[in-house]
Amino acid sequence: MTQKVPLALLPGLLLDAGLWRAQVQDLADIADCRIGDFSTQDTVGDMARSVLAVMPERFALAGLSMGGYVALEIMRQAPHRVALLALLDTMARLDTPAQTSHRRGLIELARKGKFRGVTRMLLPTLIHEDALNDEAVTGEIMAMAGRCGRDVFLRQQAAIMSRPDSLPGLGRIACTTLILCGREDARTPLDCHEEMHRGIHSASLTVIDSCGHLPPLEKPAAVTAALRAWLGAWG
């Protein structure tokens, strides 16, 4: 591989470039990494257009959680531009009524001035229990949430709740696709990824043990290895 692969890395709700720091560093020899900035948009469609506007005509695309929703929207808007697709700890299906109700509850807390407590309350569902005592991991999650802030949180939740259903379009995805998740992901469980694996004919599934919803932070070496192997299909 003589030329570096242009790689868009898309973060999730209340996450930013800090999520992908290890991968940006450790893939620098083969990938030109660019991080999606979803701080100003309030629809998944606008988030997708912001990525397409800054990437070259053909690129590799990886998204985690909300970033996965954006990646699937990019596959609707411009599938011909994506050479490789990676979907991490995300889902193609829409939220259940219970999940939507939970989101609305968090929005209400944030609007009442309790935004700072939202991420700390969510930590046990975001990372594996073993990582809860890792101050480097929890500190980075809290720092990202602080950098994003309440208004970004509200816009991103609105975008997530209004996103289209991506299940019907899975069969139209033809590029080499990596589906990856933490085995103990409590927010987008393994069955969500098995569903995408069945729906995308060109997909492979990687499951990382003792890991929750944020593998790039919890198990960075394993994620980097999986992405490096996936990028090997660039051609």
Give the helix/strand layout:
Blueprint: E1 5-10, H1 21-26, E2 31-35, H2 44-54, E3 59-64, H3 66-77, E4 82-88, H4 97-126, H5 135-161, E5 176-182, H6 190-199, E6 203-208, H7 215-218, H8 220-231
Parallel strand pairs: 1-2, 1-3, 3-4, 4-5, 5-6
Helix pairs in contact: 2-3, 4-5
Q: How would you portray this structure in words?
A:
This protein is α/β, with parallel strands linked by helices and 235 residues long. It has one domain: Rossmann fold. The protein is built from 8 helices and 6 strands. Strand 5, helix 6 and strand 6 (203-208) form a beta-alpha-beta unit. The termini are close together.
Provide tags for this entry:
8 helices, 235 residues, 16% strand, six-stranded parallel beta sheet, Rossmann fold
Shape summary: globular
Q: Architecture, CATH level 2?
A: 3-Layer(aba) Sandwich
The H-level CATH homologous superfamily, spelled out, is: Alpha/Beta hydrolase fold, catalytic domain
* Major sheet: 6 strands, parallel
How big a fraction of the residues is strand? 15-25%
Total count of strands: 6
Annotation field: number of helices:
8
| Integer count of domains | 1
What fold name goes in the CATH topology slot?
A: Rossmann fold
Q: Note the gap between the termini.
A: 8 Å
Q: Under the CATH scheme, which class? A: Alpha Beta
Order of helices and strands: EHEHEHEHHEHEHH
Helix content: 40-55%
Report the radius of gyration as a whole number of Å: 16 Å
Low-confidence stretches: none
- Biggest sheet strand order reads 2-1-3-4-5-6
What is the arithmetic mean of pLDDT? 96
Please outline what is shown here:
The chain is 48% helix and 16% strand. The protein has helices at 21-26, 44-54, 66-77, 97-126, 135-161, 190-199, 215-218, 220-231, and strands at residues 5-10, 31-35, 59-64, 82-88, 176-182, 203-208.
